[in-house]
Design a protein that fits this description.
Pfam families: ABC_tran
Helix content: 25-40%
Distance between the termini: 49 Å
Protein name: Phospholipid/cholesterol/gamma-HCH transport system ATP-binding protein
CATH topology: Rossmann fold
Domain ABC transporter: 9-246
Largest sheet: 6 strands, mixed
Radius of gyration: 20 Å
Keywords: ATP-binding, Nucleotide-binding, Transport
Order of helices and strands: EEEHEEHEHHHEHEHEEHHH
Structural class: alpha/beta
Oligomer: single chain
Strand order of the largest sheet: 6-7-8-3-9-10
CATH class: Alpha Beta
Shape: globular
Number of domains: 1
Number of helices: 10
Bound molecules: adenosine-5'-triphosphate
CATH superfamily: P-loop containing nucleotide triphosphate hydrolases
GO molecular function: ATP binding; ATP hydrolysis activity
Length: 268
């Protein structure tokens, strides 16, 4: 049965280790249909690690992750392949291929997953998505002819070309000036409203997070400090959250023995 309130993402007790280091601790995480969830946290808090686990790029050490009803901690390659068609991903480093036109870049997922579509259909579908990101008419340009903000939007058009139910966006504002970054925020809101997409955004840009989020999950040292509305996060009395919001650095107490022990453990 298709319950409208069924979560699109449901994570229970997720643990992630890199070698002998535990990176994520007992993470519970749920995203409902139609919301924009921002994952926020300082550098090294585990945001990218969580994202990589949600996408099935890393196997969880413990816990379960359900995406669109599929338990990806148990799914086989075929199931994962089918699931990936329903996911859109725009990664920070996921630049456009410089040897292809903007339109051909956007069309890549269609060519990869939909051998039944003819060239005309592919062209129409990729043009439509370029129009949604305000790049109508830029189909035949090469990526080198676009500004940084336009490249991000073209990459976004590629991420949504298959009409994903779930869109993951890693650090949308990275490397953009404030005006271009604000335009991208508007675009993310438009995708949720016009295309009814459910969107997970990883960012450490507070202004952007507060503008686009329906809810925010705050990560710190691999643990979820809280999940709540923008207001709830802003007014949280958790000291670490207030440190993050006010950009106060964590007081680091270095235990030299523990540090050396960890170095030798990781070298093994
Ligand atoms: N492939 C890896 N192998 C070992 N340790 C890793 C690996 N990737 C990340 N880490 C460690 O895991 C921790 C969390 O890193 P992660 O990249 O998930 O944080 P983040 O919140 O995304 O940080 P940033 O905002 O700086 O990208 C860090 O201590 C990092 O050093």
């Amino acid at each position: 049965m298709n319950d409208a309130r069924e979560p699109l993402i449901e994570v229970h007790g997720l643990e992630a280790w890199y070698g002998k280091r535990r990176i994520l601790h007992d993470v519970d995480f749920r995203v409902d249909a139609g919301e924009i969830r921002v994952i926020m946290g300082g550098s090294g808090s585990g945001k990218s690690t969580l994202l990589r686990h949600l996408l099935g790029l890393h196997r969880a050490t413990a816990g379960s992750i359900r995406l669109l009803g599929t338990d990806i901690t148990r799914a086989g390659p075929r199931e994962m392949q089918l699931l990936r068609r329903k996911l859109g991903v725009s990664f920070q480093g996921g630049a456009l291929l410089t040897s292809l036109s903007v339109g051909d870049n956007v069309a890549l997922p269609l060519r990869e997953h939909h051998s039944d579509l003819d060239e005309n259909q592919i062209r129409i579908m990729s043009r439509m998505k370029l129009e949604i990101v305000n790049l109508g008419g830029f189909h035949d340009l090469m990526p080198s002819q676009l500004s940084g903000g336009m490249v991000k939007r073209a990459a976004l058009a590629r991420a949504i070309v298959m009409d994903p139910q779930l869109l993951f966006f890693d650090e949308p504002s990275a490397g953009l000036d404030p005006v271009v970054s604000a335009e991208l925020d508007e675009l993310i809101l438009r995708l949720r409203d016009a295309l009814r997409m459910t969107i997970v955004v990883v960012t450490h840009e507070l202004e952007s997070a507060f503008k686009i989020a329906d809810s925010i999950t705050v990560l710190d040292q691999g643990r979820i400090l809280m999940t709540g509305t923008v207001d709830a996060v802003r007014h949280s009395d958790n000291e670490r959250i207030q440190d993050l919001l006010n950009r106060r650095p964590r007081e680091v107490v270095v235990d030299a023995d523990a540090y050396l022990r960890r170095l030798t453990e990781e070298a093994v």
